[in-house]
Amino acid sequence: MVIKPKVRGFICTNAHPVGCAVSVQEQVEYVKQQGELSNKPKNVLVIGCSTGYGLASRITSAFGAGAKTLGICFEKPPTERKTGTAGWYNTAAFHQQAEQAGLYAKTINGDAFSHPIKDQTIEMIKLDMGKIDLVIYSLASPRRTDPDTGEAYVSTLKPVGEPVVSKTFDTSKKIVHEISLESANQDEIDNTIKVMGGEDWELWIKRLSEAGVLAENCVTSSYTYIGKELTQPIYGHATIGKAKEDLDRASASLNKGYASIGLKAYVTSLKAVVTQASSAIPVMPLYISLMYQVMKDESCHEGVIEQIYGLFNTLLLEENPKLDDTKRLRMDGVETNDYIQGKIKAIWPSVTTENFDELGDYNGYNQDFLKLFGFAFDNVDYDQDVDQQVSW
Ligand code: NAD
């Protein structure tokens, strides 16, 4: 089938297997060029392994440390008439790369929030890996079913407290405009915490520990975004920010609860980048386009793989890494410093539909967005008939 992007609002409903393979290959090459990590995990579990920061974590573990990786994701396989999701193709490409390099890689595709997927994971670790020394928790999901009660929770992207009026960029209509966002009620806040907070991360660690598959001194990290004034109304001081605060509670509780096995649990704050998760958040496409422009002008722009390689090589696996006041690891220091934020804030009020291309890097944003789905790679012939039935 000939596959061209089908973009609907902030998502693309298809994906290109060859382009996704190129995307994975580029990340693998980047890690190989950087060289081996200074501290090397041996057996790594990545929950949310197929796209964005989780995929970069898996690639860094495998190609920066030669680690065995077990990944968990929730992706759709291709059918006769439809392509698979990007995460499906990324995973197939990762498996191929790992196999060529003689690296162990297995993936479980299913709902990470559920009991059966946790059971399968434990079984596979016992069978193939022994004990896990690094657990990366990189899920981004709009919904979660509580595995004990069966109740389904849906997250909301709304401010907390006062309603917010902000500038945004509508990626479908290609216009800069103002949006009004109603503030969330307590149910919406609680439900978002239930979906994106620390409860499931804690459940994973509990189950892994009870099964005896966590190594002594195992490290675990979940990922967060903190941001500054421009994004706080819709992120930090919003429902998603409340859920992310719950990760801080969970990491403290994990550190205390599993001190006897020397578990180190961190929340890592990462830079804003274009991923399937971030493109769904109002205001982020505008903010990221302006931030990309400023950081590219200042030659300090980074994408997912640069962030994660830096995290693994300089902070996460260190004996005593530098923590912030809330005991988080910080990889977002350059994005959030006053100089970079000052430059973005200076442009923000004057951005309009007409000058957006000139003041911001929407082209860069859009290219990165298309690349998430395997499109916009110069070295892929998108007129070519390709087999969408790729598997691993
Ligand atoms: P993403 O959408 O690229 O990846 C989400 C992953 O979760 C995919 O592998 C998907 O298959 C998996 N997943 C979703 N629901 C699942 C389920 N029920 N069961 C199993 N797997 C499931 O997202 P991302 O942007 O890489 O986000 C990962 C983490 O990084 C999130 O915690 C996010 O808040 C954080 N983060 C993102 C940014 C950013 O700008 N994108 C910045 C800082 C922190």
What do these coordinates show?
Helix content is 41%, strand content 17%. It has one domain (7-157, 188-282, 303-338): NAD(P)-binding Rossmann-like Domain (Rossmann fold), CATH 3.40.50. The protein has 13 helices and 13 strands. The model has no long low-confidence stretch (mean pLDDT 97). The strands form 4 sheets. It has a 7-stranded parallel sheet, with helices on both faces. The chain is an alpha/beta fold. It is globular and about 60 Å long. α5 packs across α7 (239-257). The structure holds nicotinamide-adenine-dinucleotide. Nicotinamide-adenine-dinucleotide is lined by residues 48-54, 72-75, 87, 111-113, 138-141, 223-225, 270, 272-273, 275-278.
What Rg, in angstroms, do the CA atoms define? 20 Å
If you consult CATH, what is the topology?
Rossmann fold
- Largest sheet properties: 7 strands, parallel
* Strands, total number: 13
The number of helical runs is: 13
- Poorly predicted runs of 5 or more residues: none
Helix content: 40-55%
Kindly, what is the distance between the CA atoms of the first and last residues, rounded to a whole number of angstroms? Answer: 19 Å
How many individual domains?
Answer: 1
Q: Give helix and strand order, one letter per element, not per position.
A: EEHEHEHEHEEEEEHHEHEHHEHHHH
What best-fitting shape do the alpha-carbon axes yield? Answer: globular
